[in-house]
Write a structure and sequence with these properties.
The complex is a heterodimer of chains A (491) and B (231). Chain A has 491 residues and is mostly helical. Helices cover 74% and strands 0% of the residues of chain A. In chain B, β7, α6 and β8 form a beta-alpha-beta unit. The chains are: A mainly alpha (491), B alpha/beta (231).
Chain lengths: 491, 231
Amino acid sequence: MFSTFLRHQWTAFWRSRNKGATIAAQVIMGIFALYLLGVCLLVGFVMEDLIYKFMPDKDVFMVFNGMILYYFAVDFIARLQIQELPTLSIVPYLHLNIPKRKLVSFLQFRSLLSVLNIFPLIIFFPFCFRNVWPEYGGFACTTYLVVIFSLVIFNNYAALYFKRVSAENIKIVIPAILVVAALAGLEYLQLFSIASFSDMLFSYIAVYPPVGLIFPVLAVVIFLLNDRYLKNNLYVEDLTAGEEKKSSTDYPFLDRFGAAGTLAALEIKLILRNRRPKATVTKALLLLFYGFLFYNRKVLENNDFAKMLFAAVFMTGNTILIYGQFMFGWQAAEFDGMLANKVNIRDFFRAKFILLTISASLLTVLTTFYSFLSWKILAVHFAAYLYNIGVSNILVLYFATRNYKYIDISKGAKFSWEGVSASTMLLSLPVLLSPYIIYFPLSIINPYIGLIGIAIPGIAGLFSRRYWINFLVREFEKRKHKIAAGFRERS
Amino acid sequence: MIIEINKLTKTYAGRKVTDIEKLTINTGETVGVIGNNGAGKTTLFRMLLDLIRPDSGEIVSKGVNVAENDHWKNYTASYLDEGYLIDYLTPEEYFIFIGGLQKMSVRQVMDYLQSYEEFFNGEILDRGKYIRDFSKGNQNKIGITAALMQQPELLVLDEPFANLDPTTQIRLKAHLKSLKSGNLTTMISSHDLNHVTDVCDRIILFEKGRVIKDIYTNENTLEELEAYFSQ
C-alpha cells in the first residue's frame, strides 16, 4: 500500500500542471541538498580538527557536547520554516476501502523522508565513533547514537505537531515566539546558555549512559501524540474548510483615506485571511532578528554604518520588498473584477502606498528594540525607513506593473516558485544596492552625512508622491491588459 | 443606441474568436448572446468591459470607445465568472465593498439586500463563511446580485443560469424580466435556449466569432434555434 501511495505522489509530481517550474525548483533544491550533505559529511569527519583549530583552548568534548542541543534548537526553528506537512492529497483515499490506520501510518512515515533528518546523523555520528568510543567506551557511544537519533525523530514530529496545531489555532504561535525570543535574549545576555546546558547533559550521559534513555521515550511520546492527532482529524471537513464562524470586520482608522482606505482595508483582509500572504508577512516579523547578525560593538564604535545599512533597509522595509515583489499577483484571482468594477486606479495605487507605508512604519517602531545596543542604530534605521517609504515603494510598485504571474494565495509558500519571474528576482537588487551608491561617496566626509544623504531622496519621494502616483497609473494603463491576461492563466 | 461595435476582431493562436463587422445594441433591449463553446461570447464580453484589447476595431458605449476611458464604468455592471469575486471576503463584506464603489452607504446596501432575501433562499447572508467556501451556485448568486445592486444602465451577465438550482433559475428569470424598462439594457449569454428565448427580446447567435443570426424573439424562435443547434 505504501508503495502505491508513493507511486501516486510521484505521478502527481510528474504530471503537475506547471511541471517545468516545479522540476526546476526541485532540481535546484536537490543540488543544494547534495552540496549541504557533502559539507556535513566533511564537517562530521574533521570535527575534532575543526574544534582544535577554532577553539584551541577548549576541551573538544565540551565543545562537541555543547553543540548538540544547540544544533537541534536551531534545527527545530528551521524545520518550522522548511519542513512541509505531508498531507498528500489524502482526500481521494478517504472513502476507499483503506483502513484509516494505514493512511495515518503513511503520513507519519512519509514525513521521515526528509533530508533534514539526515544532516544531524552525518554531522554527529562520525565523531561519536572516532572520539566518544575510545574515550568513554562502546556503551556510551551507543547511547550517544541513540540519543541523537531520538532527537532527530523528536524534532521531526514535534515540528509537524506544532505546525498542525498552529494551523488550526494561530494563537499558540504568539507564546511560542515569546519563548524563543526569551531564550535568544537570555543567550545573548549570557544569562542562560543552551550550549552549557547541553554540555552538562551530555557529559553526564557520557558517564552514566542509561540516563540517555529518556530521549527515545520523549521521541515515542511525541510520535504517539502526532499519531493520535492525525487519527482524530482525518476527516474531509477538517482537511478543508475550518468550522469557526467567519465574521465581517472593519478597519475604521482607514476610513479617513476614503476610497483608497477601503482598498487598503481590503488588502489587509487579503493578507490575514489567506495562507500564503500571511506566511509572507509573518516571515517579515521573524526577519526583525536579522540585525543581530550585523550589529556588533566594533561596527558601532567605528560608525561603520555601511555594514549596518543592508540590515537596516532590509528590516525596516522587508514587507515592501518581500510582499511587494509579488504585487499585484496577490490579487490575481479577483483582478478582472477590480478592472471591470468602478475602482479608480489612482486610488488603487494610493492604497498600496498607504499599506506599504503603514507596514514599514510598524516594522521601524518594532526595530527600536535594537536601541538597547546603541542609539546610533536608531539613526541608521530612521534613514533607512525614510528611504524605504520614499523610494523603495515607488520602485517596487513600478516593478509590479511588469509582473504578470498569477499566484495561488491559499497555498503555502514553501519553495513554491509560483509567481516568481525575472522581474521579481531583479527587484530587490536596486532597492538594496542603491542606498550604498548614495552612502559611500558621502560617508568619506562623515558617516552621518552619508545617512542624511540616504534620507533626502526618501523625503523627496514622499513630497512628490502625487507625481509618482500619476507616473505609476500611466505605466499601469499601458500594461493592464497584459497583466489581466497573465493573471487569467492559472499555472 | 447604447452599444456600437465596429469591425471588431480578436485572434488567439491563429484562430479568429471574434469577427464582427457591425453590431448595434439599442437602449432598453434585453439581448441574449448564444453559441457553442468557442463561439466567442466571453471574449466579446471581456472586450466590452475593456478586460482584453481587441486586435482591431472598437466597441463604443454611449458614444465613447470603452478602451479609451473609464466613463462606461459609471453605468455598467457585470458578472462574468468567479474572477470577479473577492473570495476571502464574507458576502456581506463583498456587497458593501461593491456598493461603496458606487457610493452606496452600508445602510443602503443592507436595505437593498433585504429585497433579495427570496432570491438568496436564506443561503447567503449571515452564514459565517467566506465566499470561497460557498458552493459554485451560491457564488454565482453573490456575483449576480452584486451586479444588479449597482442599478446599472448596462448589465452584462455571462451564463447567469449555470450552476443555479431550478428554483433560483426561475426566480432569476422572473427578476430579469421585471427589471426590463426603457433604461436598462441587458446582455446575457447562455447555453440554455429555453431561458434566453424566454427572457430576451433579441437573440444574437455566434459561430466562430461571427454573427450568424440576429433575430427579435417570437413564438418560433425557440424552434428555429433548436434546428440550428441540432444540425
